[in-house]
Design goal:
215 residues; alpha+beta; Gyrase A, domain 2; 2 domains; 4 helices; 4 strands; 55% helix
Length: 215
Amino acid sequence: MIRINLLKPETKDIREQATSPGVTEDKARKGPNIGNLIFLALVIGLGAFYFFQRKAFDRETALLTTARAEKTKLQYVEVKLEEQRKARESLDRKITLIESLNAQRDMAPRLMDEFSRRLPEWVWLTEIVYDAKGIGIKGRALSNNLVADYISNLESSPQIMNVNLVTSTQKTVQGDLYLEFSLRATVEKKPEPVPAPAAPAPDAKPAAKKKGVQP
C-alpha cells in the first residue's frame, strides 16, 4: 500500500514553530526564581533578627524585674538598719546615764557627810539638790553670822568650791525669828590624766642646724 502525504511542506515548519515558544516560556520561568529565593532569604533573616531581638528584650525585662525586687528588699533592710541604729543610740544613752549615776553614787554620801559635818550649831538643812550646774543648798539659821560661818566651813572643804549665797529671808513662826537661806556651790572634779608625750622614733634624725646660728 502506498501512502501519499498531501500536506504542504511548510506545515511541518509551522508546527515546529508552534511548539518552539514553549521552550522559551520554560526558560523565562526559570529566570525569576533567583529573585524569589533572595526575597525568601531576606524574610527568613528578618524573622531571625526579630526573634533574637525579642529574646534579648525579654531577658533585659527579666533582669529589670529582678533588680526592682532586689531594690525593694534593700529598702526594707535599710529601714531595719535605721531602726537598729536608733535603738543602739538609745541604749548607748541609757548606758551612759547609768554609768554617770554609778559614778555619782559614791560621791553623794561623801557630799552629804561634808554638808552635815561642817554645819555650825543652830543651822539646819532642809534641801540639797545636785544637778549639772552644781549643788543647791537650802536651810535655816538663827542669824546671818551663822550662815556666813557655814559658807566659810564649806569653802574649806577639798571637795566643795565656789560657795555663794543666793537668798536670805527673815521669817517669824510663833514668835521665833529665823533666816531661810539658799546657797549654790560646785563640786571639784578630779583632773583627767594627761597623756605622756610620745617618745621620738629611734631612727629619727636630728634637725639640721641653720647657718649662722650658734648652738
